[in-house]
Write a structure and sequence with these properties.
Helix 1 (about 10-25) crosses helix 3 and helix 2 packs across helix 3 (about 50-60). With about 130 residues, the protein is mostly helical. A hairpin with a 3-residue loop joins strand 1 (about 65-70) and strand 2. It has helices at about 10-25, 40-45, 50-60, 80-105, 110-120, and strands at about 65-70, 70-75. It has a two-stranded antiparallel ribbon. The protein contains five helices and two strands; from the N terminus they run αααββαα.
């Protein structure tokens, strides 16, 4: 579930944050699903529980999870405000990467093909029209 690179320059807690985000965004982890306890995850990954706690705090600050005292941490329902802020950041980061790709010789059709391929990998980005 988690591939951590202890030799990476990126801190372990950031690697954990990124991996949890991937799992939440790709809906592997569903809304209100309980995350592993800090102690359990620390034992499984053989890392310091403080590192796990730091990752969970960061995820909570970013709105991906919420905590209930005595119960644990759970996947949040995404809100429009949080999504808008995240989307603005992603757009800014993506613009930089697109500029770099174009500078390095990637063509617009290649970029379009990459976007289409990525969209297909997440099920076409289709929304579920059923009401809950």
């Amino acid at each position: 579930m988690f591939n951590l690179d202890v030799r990476s320059r990126k801190p372990i807690y950031e690697q954990l944050v990124e991996r949890f985000k991937e799992l939440i965004i790709s809906e592997v982890m569903k809304k209100d699903e309980k995350l592993p306890s800090v102690r359990t995850l620390a034992q499984q990954l053989t890392i310091n529980p403080n590192t796990i706690q730091k990752a969970y705090r960061e995820l909570e600050t970013q709105g991906y999870i919420y905590s209930i005292k005595g119960k644990g941490s759970f996947v949040s329902e995404t809100t429009d405000v949080v999504n808008t802020e995240k989307l603005q950041k992603v757009e800014k980061d993506l613009s930089k990467l697109i500029l770099e790709a174009l500078y390095l010789g990637m063509t617009v059709p290649q970029l379009q093909a990459l976007v289409e391929e990525t969209e297909k990998s997440i099920g076409g980005g289709e929304q579920d029209d059923r009401s809950e």
